[in-house]
Amino acid sequence: MNSILAESLYQEDLYEIPGKVIVVLSKNWDDVTEEERTVLSKMLIAVKLNIASVQIITREAFSINDLAALNPSKLLVFGKMVKDVQAFYELTVVNGLPVIVADAIDQLDDAKKKTLWVALKSMFSL
C-alpha cells in the first residue's frame, strides 16, 4: 500500500537505504585499547565487514526500541545488557532485528570467542 501511495506522490525514483550493522560497546571509542580495536576489526573482517562499514555507538542499558531511529540491519552488543535479550553468545531475533549480545571485548577468552564465532556465522550466513 505504501509503495502504491509513494508512486503516485513522487515522480522521482525512490530507494530504500538499508540500515548498517550497529556495534554497541560498553565504553567510549577513545577508551577502547588498540588490542580491543584489533579484536573487533578481526571479527568484522571475518564476517566480510570492516570498521568503516559499521556504526559504533556507546549506550548504557537499553532496549531494542531505543535504537529504532538508527535503522540497524543487525546489532552486535559488547558488554551491555539489552532489556529485550537474555541470552549471551546466541543469535536472537527481536522484532525482526538479529541481535548478538556478548561480554565486553576485553573479557573475551578463546572459548567465548569460539561461541561468539558460531553465532556470528549464523547471523551473517557464513
Number of strands: 5
Could you give the distance between the termini? 34 Å
At the third CATH level, what is the topology name? Uracil-DNA Glycosylase, subunit E
Uncertain stretches: none
The appropriate CATH architecture is: 3-Layer(aba) Sandwich
Order of helices and strands: HEHEEEEH
- Count of individual helical segments: 3
Mean pLDDT: 84
Q: How many separate domains?
A: 1
Q: Given this structure, which CATH class is correct?
A: Alpha Beta
The biggest beta sheet is recorded as: 5 strands, mixed
What's the helical proportion of residues?
Answer: 25-40%
**Global structural class:** alpha/beta
User: Superfamily at the CATH H level?
Assistant: Uracil-DNA glycosylase-like domain
Quaternary organization: single chain
Radius of gyration: 16 Å
Query: Order of strands across the biggest sheet?
Result: 2-1-3-5-4
Mass-distribution shape = globular
**Portion in strands:** 15-25%
How would you sum up this structure, described in words?
- The chain has 126 residues and is of the alpha/beta class.
- It has a single domain (21-123), classed as Uracil-DNA Glycosylase, subunit E.
- The protein has three helices and five strands, in the order αβαββββα.
- A five-stranded mixed beta sheet has the order 2-1-3-5-4, with helices on one face.
- Strand 4 and strand 5 (97-102) form a beta hairpin.
- The longest helix is centred in the last third of the chain and has 14 residues, at 110-123.
